[in-house]
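COMPLEX REQUEST
Ligand: 3-methyl-2-oxobutanoic acid
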Amino acid sequence: MAETRLSMPGLVGLKREGRRLVMLTCYDALFARLLEQAGIDLLLVGDSVNEVLAGRRSTLSATLDQMIYHAASVRRGTDRALVVVDLPFLAYQVSVEEAIRHAGRILAETDCHAVKLEGGRVMVPTVAALTARGIPVVAHLGLTPQSIHGLGGYRVQGRSPADAERLRADALALQEAGASAIVLELLPQGLAREISASLTIPTIGIGSGAGCDGQVLVLHDMLGLNEGFAPKFLRHYAELAGVVRDAAGRYADEVRAGEYPGPDHAFD
Ligand code: KIV
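STATUS: Structure written out below.
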């Protein structure tokens, strides 16, 4: 179990020491407590909550209020882990002023530690403005789900030399602007390794191979709760869908058979 007290500025030192960062998505206090007890360093209140829990088809319709609700819940379940919250679509793309106001609301209303936003050099003024105001930022490059329609689907990014070069330059520019870390999603492993080696801030990979400084997965995917989703990069660390279905099925059978509640489950 990781016992180090973490801070956003301290992430650079952890990279220097060669310590791999462990991040999982989290959307509620109950799982936050369990993940912290398991020694997870960083909890990401991802806008994937909109797909995973709310059943929407993409992250695009996630709202600021929705993110604040889940972020505040996660934060109430944690003492040690760093909690990073996704700025939802259109909360930061319209203007730097709106980005400051919305990121500020997230930190003020949830007591979380950082915001995450998607995009490369176009986001440099926003990242610089947020960090200059004391709001730590995690950037996100590669497959950026809020641009899913522009990217034409969930596929590996940065395969062409021009795209790879753009991503290398984006990463350096975001570091220069003050980003605390960069999520690299669905990049070829060689490119992700190269970008990671070129930066002093840590990269946190998802579907980008072992050369990143840390890894993130969507909690419900790695717990085997999202049965239809099986990308190459995913490993199931449990098969909870079957566990939940079995438990609910046994409960239903026992209620129907008059076996639950038994004599021990009732009050006199
Ligand atoms: O919203 C999310 O869960 C994410 C991860 C996929 C990195 O951004």
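REMARKS: The chain has a mean pLDDT of 97. Residues 239-268 form one domain.
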